[in-house]
From TrEMBL:
PANTHER family: ATP SYNTHASE SUBUNIT B, ATP SYNTHASE SUBUNIT B', CHLOROPLASTIC. CDD domains: ATP-synt_Fo_b (cd06503). Residues 41-78 form a coiled coil. This is ATP synthase subunit b. One of its GO terms (cellular component) is proton-transporting ATP synthase complex. It comes from Liquorilactobacillus sucicola DSM 21376 = JCM 15457. Gene3D superfamilies: 6.10.250.1580. Its main location: membrane.
Length: 174
C-alpha cells in the first residue's frame, strides 16, 4: 500500500499539501487584510481626504484672490474717479481764484486811475492857482510900472480877472 500510495502521490494531486497551502494562503490573506490592507487603505483614504481638502482650500484661496483682485480693481477705479474729481475741483478753484484776482486787479487799476485823475485835476488846479497868484503879482508890477501909480484893490482884482480870462481862453484854444 505504501508503494501504491507513493505511486499515486507521484502521479496524482496531493490533496494534503494543496489543502495545507490553501489554508496557509487564506491565513496569509487574512493577516494581510488585517495588518496591511486596513492600514494601507486607511492611509490612502486619509491621503485622498487630504488631497480633497487641499483642493477645496486651493479653490477657496483662488476665489478669495479673485474677490480681492476685484475689490482692488474697484478701489482703483474709485481712486481714479476721486482723483479726477479732485483735479476738476482744483481747476474750478483755480479758475475762480484767477477770475477774482483779475477782477481785483481791474478794480484796483480803475481806482488808481480815478485817483490819478483826481490828483492830476487837483495838481492842475493848484498849478492854476499858483500861476494866478504869480500872474497877479507880475501884472501888478507891470501895471504899476506902466501906470506909475499904485492900483487900489478893486482895480487890481478887475485887472487880474481879465488877465486870467484871457489866459483861460488861450489854454482852451491850445
Amino acid at each position: 500500500m505504501s508503494s501504491t500510495f507513493l505511486l499515486g502521490a507521484a502521479n496524482g494531486v496531493q490533496w494534503g499539501d494543496t489543502i495545507f497551502y490553501l489554508v496557509l494562503f487564506i491565513v496569509l490573506m487574512a493577516l494581510l487584510k488585517h495588518f496591511a490592507w486596513g492600514p494601507v487603505s486607511e492611509m490612502m483614504e486619509k491621503r485622498a481626504d487630504k488631497i480633497s481638502d487641499d483642493l477645496d482650500s486651493a479653490e477657496s484661496a483662488r476665489k478669495k484672490a479673485e474677490d480681492l483682485a476685484a475689490q482692488r480693481q474697484s478701489a482703483l477705479k474709485d481712486s481714479h474717479f476721486e482723483a479726477s474729481k479732485i483735479i476738476e475741483r482744483a481747476k474750478k478753484n483755480g479758475e475762480q481764484q484767477k477770475a477774482t484776482i483779475v477782477s481785483d486787479a481791474q478794480e484796483k487799476a480803475q481806482t488808481l486811475k480815478v485817483n490819478a485823475k483826481e490828483d492830476i485835476s487837483r495838481e492842475r488846479q493848484d498849478a492854476l492857482d499858483s500861476v494866478k497868484n504869480d500872474v497877479a503879482e507880475l501884472s501888478i508890477e507891470i501895471a504899476s510900472k506902466i501906470i506909475r501909480k499904485d492900483l487900489n484893490a478893486n482895480d487890481q482884482k478887475a485887472l487880474i480877472d481879465s488877465y486870467i480870462e484871457g489866459l483861460g481862453k488861450q489854454n482852451e484854444a491850445k
